[in-house]
Amino acid sequence: MRILTSEPVRAAAAGDNLSGVVKARVLAEGFDTVGIADPAAIGGAGEGLIGFLAAGFHGDMGWLEANADKRADPRVLWPEVRSVILVTLNYGPDDDPRPARADASRGAVSVYAKGADYHDIIKAKLKAVARDFADMAGEDVKVFVDTAPVMEKPLAQAAGLGWQGKHTNLVSRDLGSWFFLGAIFTTARLAPDTPERDRCGTCCACLDACPTRAFPEPHRIDARRCISYLTIEHKGQIGPEFREAIGNRIYGCDECLAACPWNKFAQKASEVRFHARDAADNPPLHELLRLDAAAFRARFAGSPVKRIKRDRFVRNALVAAGNSGDQALLDDALRLICDDSPLVRGMAVWAVSRLGGLELKSKLKERYSSEEKDATVREEWERMP
């Protein structure tokens, strides 16, 4: 988004410390920390992105490749940019989310997705800051919240807000790993902050915590193996090699974030907007397996979960059901063998293969496998023991 002033009013800002003024306005809007970076300070992150794409680590995320040049250099995205204002917004949980995964009858939802959609919350706040700054400074601004080709994390490190940990996420001395990022690009020349240094040391807790070994080396992730990618971004069937490791995670994964020792400084999110919503707070699997498209939209209205739509979400719930060992979920899985979506049918076959007895599976395979038109679903029938 671009916000332009109707008339330049640079005289009004003459002599003001623009950096200090905009930082005060950001904090007044309710953000937790703020820093400023020169757009050129993205440094070698652009080269790292090119290597990430060349290795195919982005998987289905073609949008990363489509705008790689703009991600690699903010000045390609907007040649007029002179400064980038980076902000954080805390979403720290009340408790460590990992013990909640012990209840296999429920689906585990990533902490960030248990509240209202952060895109809407942060963008509204950033727009308010940007309008005031544009009016005061007589400069042009653009607002970005995870929906444009911007590499917020290396810019935020350059702005002194944290450093990219070995899990590739930003870590803060003030907020641990639980915070969102937003950015305001501006034509104003603002005083940049001192970059934060890497403070991970020899710790590899985040890498060791990954259930699917998605990190080929520190500071490098193969998204194709990441549970967050598999349950959110990936559009096809989830590979058999990852299903057991996914456990009951139905939307995202918090393991590498939760394992970070810097979370001892994390703060609980104080605002109601990030408190757990009944709709998304580790819901019972038997309810999720019964969702049609309309019920899914109603249940997750206003939640980030809605972005993956019903079929992918029920696919994830079926993986969790197959891992649950809960025979009470078998009837729901059986019903979904005949679902309209091949994505759902395929995972239903797998869930039944885990929950059903040999006699039942033999009868089902004989009844349905020869009639199945989708190749990926047929493969699931063929794998059924």
Key traits:
385 residues, alpha+beta, 18 helices, 40% helix, elongated
Explain what this protein looks like in three dimensions.
- The chain is of the alpha+beta class.
- It has two domains: 1-268, no CATH class; 284-385, no CATH class.
- The chain contains 18 helices and nine strands.
- It has helices at residues 18-28, 45-54, 62-66, 68-72, 74-77, 118-137, 152-158, 205-209, 227-233, 240-246, 255-258, 285-288, 293-299, 309-324, 330-336, 342-355, 358-368, 375-383; strands spanning 2-3, 33-37, 83-90, 108-109, 141-144, 163-164, 170-171, 179-186, 249-251.
- The strands form three sheets. A five-stranded antiparallel beta sheet has the order 1-5-8-3-2, sandwiched between helices.
- β6 (163-164) and β7 form a beta hairpin.
- α14 packs parallel to α16.
- It is elongated, with a radius of gyration of 23 Å.
- It starts with a strand and ends with a helix.
- Mean pLDDT is 91; it is low at 1-16.
The quaternary state of the protein chains shown equals: single chain
* Low-confidence parts: 1-16
Q: Summarize model confidence as the mean pLDDT.
A: 91
E-strand count:
9
Order of helices and strands: EHEHHHHEEHEHEEEHHHEHHHHHHHH
Q: What percentage of the residues does DSSP assign to strands (E)? A: 5-15%
Structural class: alpha+beta
Shape: elongated
The count of domains is 2
Strand order of the largest sheet: 1-5-8-3-2
Radius of gyration: 23 Å
Please outline the major beta sheet.
5 strands, antiparallel
Q: How far is the first residue's CA from the last residue's CA?
A: 53 Å
